[in-house]
Amino acid sequence: MTDRIVGILILFLALGYALEASRMQVGFLSDPLGPRPFPYIIAILVGLSALWLIFKPDPNPTWPPPRFWPVLGLVLLSLVAYAYLVVPLGFILTTTLEMTLLSVLFGARWWQGLLGALAFTLAVYFLFTEGLGVTLPVGRIFG
Amino acid sequence: MRWVTLAVVVLTIGGALAQFTPRNPECIAPAGAGGGWDFTCRSVAQVMQDLKIVNQPIKVTNVTGGGGGVAYANVVTQRGDDPNLIVAASPATTVRLAQGQFSRFTERDVRWLGAVAADFGLVAVKADAPWKTMQELVAAWKADPSKIAVGGGSAVGGQDHMKVLLLGRAVGLEPRSIKYVPFDGGGQALTSLLGGFIQVFAGDASELRAQVEAGTVRVLGMMSPRRLPAPYANVPTLKELGYNVEWVVWRGFYVPKNMPTPAYEFWANALRQVERSPEWARIREQNSLGQFFMIGAEFQVFIDRQVNQFRNLSRELGIIR
Amino acid sequence: MDILQALLNGFGVALEPFNLLLVVLGCLVGTLIGVLPGIGPISGVALLVPLTFALKMPPESALILLAGIYYGAMYGGSTTSILLNIPGETSSVVTAIDGNKLAKQGQAGPALAMAAWGSFIAGTLSVVGLMTLGPLLAQWAIRFGPAEYFALMVFGFSTLSALAGKNLFKALIATGFGLMLATVGQDPQSGISRYTFGFLQLEDGMDFLVVAIGLFAVSEVLMLLEEKTPGAVRAQVGRIYLSFKDFMGSLFTILRSSVLGFLIGVLPGAGASIASFVAYTTEKRLLGSKARFGEGDLRGVAAPESANNAAAGGAMIPLLTLGLPGSGTTAIMLGALMSLGVTPGPQMFQKHPEVVWGLIASMYVGNAVLLLLNLPLVGLFVRLLAVPAWFLVPAVLAISFIGVYAVNNNPFDLFLMAVFGLVGYLMRKLEFPLAPVLLGLVLGYLMEINLRRAMTISNGDVGYLFSSPIAVGLWVLAGLSLLAPVLVARFRKQGLGGDEEL
Could you report the predicted ipTM of this complex, rounded to two decimals? Predict the structure, then answer.
């Protein structure tokens, strides 16, 4: 059953993908083939495979226990927050927080996680910025 | 206009006294390592350090994406008044600005600093190609444009394509009849030329030097205002041959629009010192770059004119509507 | 004789104390960079270029250092693939398939040692190839035009079923997803943007590294979080040494993959990632039921790791003999050399023999150094698995963040990484194979662009795709590869029939 639902979703993805291709505005200086045929072929390939999935689904997968979903959501949310905050707050602060969160989720005590995260982040930060000359965000709030 | 230039000169001389010293200076190369912008940043940063113009090393950051658009948007929206930042630029920047490829941003959203060197476009064929001169190539091209594939290192609408279209226009060919094959960089286009898959390569002087010295390619015409030194000394410019095509790949910088005046003058003065130094002359020579120097208000005017010119050309040639 | 004399002079350069030090330093830094997930050869070489200017090195020394980092990073890339199922770089993605299975079976040590030996043999063979066949192969590489590349990509896809898990259609969907990702960005042939939805950050296309780290590393962390229950299978320290028998069993895989990887590496634009994919899929199909590919076979580690190192050696050929960079990494080396006053090109062997032969000799030295360096490290790396998960996993992820961020200096990539992490997690739960996504992404772009170049050149004549012996050869190979399962089955049946008659 799960595969059927997934198959339908993928079918919609393929249709949307093809629709977007059909709406491309091509200037008159394009090559003989143009930018559309390749996406069309991909959409057909994916669409047909999705149909197969709908008609011949695999047995249902084993989903994680319900209490895992909030954890998953938290981790993904923290990663998105990390992407937005790494420049304003700086690499050291954001990475320490992200690592602490993950450590705690992996079963560490919060102070264990925090100490480990801080020590590691600092070490890595100086290794990369001083040792290898990589630019990592310092954090605008400290600028 | 002249008094503006004069004012800038006076201010620049005064600028040296204005005591601005950059803190953690940075040069953004809006593309990956190994490209032209990366080279501009790294070599200029190196000379500024060697000449002790800056007392801290200039950090080079590669901010890639959108053909320089990501860096442009970044500078405009987030670092609009940063006094310690310069950003590498070239006609690839102005072409994209002219074609509106940097989303809503225009050439007025930054302040243009100056240019310190230039590369020049050229037209090359394989050493054993039947065309010995530009005139012979043009004759064959006009006779049947579908038989001649012209390759370049940029996408349709990009620098190398513009060169080809300009040449096509100069010889009286319809843009649609020209077969242009885009490659991922000049190196791959050159490989295809040597393999005989394309007949003509619209490249730059610096890319072709080793091949010209080895005699594997024949350069038919330069898109420079004057003839270049060896190994190009015997190659006529397209202008000499009567085709009004020039393509100057200047290498320069822009800075954040609201950079404080003392900082702007510091950087303008720094570029002036770099350009005059023997170190810079040596780097130019090693990389087959020509002399090209423009700074401050003069450069700003030059950029405004160039963007306008590219915009009109792109419309005329059908690249944008 | 000339070659030997030149090589001796080369060793004279490579064994100068300063240069020898640089080889060791390059190998060491390269291995470190390679081990760190997300930071691969390109970033490694790019990071160290400024150092060569700052120290005002002579060009041969600079090239020796950069090359050391290049193949050092290739060596190190397999480590996290094997230990943690987190690929160190794009060319070690397939290594994770069998490598991590082995680690979970307590075979992490032999797998790491196999990667080191495979890399050593492939690296050394590719230097021999570079030295003896360089100019010849360069001429071969030049004869690869758009039609030939298109056929090569078709051949690459024809081996796809080797990456499929239980359900071929799920593998097809995964490949299609990779192909979709390959079409994101500005289309060079028409100048228009496709599937960028107004994001400037997507104009240059999906970064392979961002997709790989998201799909593999982030989703692996999510899987580990889910499996955090007591008794879940985790990689164990287990055996450390590689037995002679295992080594001999993989020798032919290493040799074949070296040749394949080397030839692909010579082609400008193809590169180490494609080499590792094709070597893995080819070996899997060649060995068939004799091997347990996908369930933890040492040959599944040996094939991609040999191929990517051989490709790194092959990629030096167009650079040194023609002055044409075939990969991102060699493009950076070209830039560095030009700034140091050496213009690589057809006359490089005559004009700068000390640079070329010094480099070649240093590559022999470097490969030996890397083997000596990496074999003892195996014991150390394997013990990393004894570090508690609460520290090890977040730490590895933190380094991946640097890798993702430092490529483009763009936080948007971190956001994309998170999105691909979720996609990867769902794909794993639903039993979609992940490797085909990357295959589609790598091959898709080259496939489309070369087809369209070919059509532009031939004014739309499809016959052009079959117009050269190389192209026809590749089409035949692709056909054979697609038919291989059928042919092998028939062959086996006939063989059995023969036995019955006796």
Answer: 0.94
Q: Which of A26, A35, A106 sits opposite C389 (nearest CB)?
A: A106
* Residue C58: DSSP 8-state: -
State in Å, rounded, how far the first CA of chain C is from the last one: 54
Chains contacting B (3 or more CB pairs within 8 Å): A, C
B129 shares a domain with B89: no
Specify if B234 maps to a domain. no
- Shortest Cα–Cα distance, B176 to chain A (Å): 6
Nearest to residue B80, comparing CAs of B114, B41, B110? B110
Residue C443, domain extent? 2-501
Reading phi first (left if > 0) and then psi (alpha if -120 to 50, else beta), residue B236 is in beta
- Asked whether residue B6 falls in the same domain as residue B76, the answer is yes
CA C141/CA C318 separation, integer angstroms: 8
Place of tokens 């399962």: C485
pLDDT of residue B15: 46
Tokens found for residue C291: 């091997």
Determine the pLDDT at residue C165.
Answer: 75
- Are the C-beta atoms of A73 and A105 separated by less than 8 Å? no
Q: Is B46 a residue whose pLDDT tops 60?
A: yes
Whether residue B170 is found in the same domain as residue B98: no
Find residues 158-197 of chain C whose CB sits inside 8 Å of chain B.
186-191
Same-domain pairing of B158 and B214: yes
Dig out the tokens for C418 from the structure: 């998170």
Determine contact, residues A3/A11, Cβ cutoff 8 Å: no
Percent of chain C surpassing pLDDT 90 = 27
User: In terms of residue numbers, what domain contains B64?
Assistant: 2-118+249-316
How many distinct structural domains can be found in chain C?
A: 1
Q: Does one domain contain both B34 and B138? A: no
Question: Which residues of chain A from 93 to 132 reach within 8 Å of chain C, CB to CB?
Answer: 95, 98-99, 102-108, 112-113, 116-117, 120-121, 124, 128, 132
Residue B233 lies in a domain: no
Q: What is the mean pLDDT of residues A63-90?
A: 92
Render pLDDT for B74-85 as a digit per residue (tens, 0 to 9).
999 989 999 999
Q: Neighbouring chains of C at 3+ CB pairs within 8 Å?
A: A, B
Q: What is the pLDDT of residue C488?
A: 66
**Distance from the first to the final alpha carbon of chain A:** 54
With respect to residue B47, please indicate whether it lies within any of the assigned structural domains. Answer: yes
Same domain for B109 and B138, yes or no, is no
- Report pTM: 0.88
Q: What integer best gives the mean pLDDT of chain A?
A: 90
Structure-block tokens of residue B188: 């791959």
Q: How many domains does chain B have?
A: 2
Tokens linked to C276: 């590792």
Asked if pLDDT for residue C233 goes beyond 70, the answer is no
Whether B16 and B112 share a structural domain: yes
Q: Do C198 and B103 touch (CB under 8 A)?
A: yes
Q: In this structure, are B105 and B141 located in the same domain? A: no
- Give the pLDDT confidence of C242-268 residue by residue, as tens digits: 888 888 888 999 999 999 999 988 887
In this predicted model, what pLDDT tens digit does every residue of C308-352 receive, in sequence order? 999 988 888 888 888 877 777 888 888 788 777 787 877 788 888
User: B106: how many CB neighbours lie within 10 A of its CB?
Assistant: 12
Q: Are C100 and C81 in contact (CB under 8 A)?
A: yes
Q: What is the mean pLDDT of chain C?
A: 85
- On whether residue B228 sits in a domain, the answer given is no
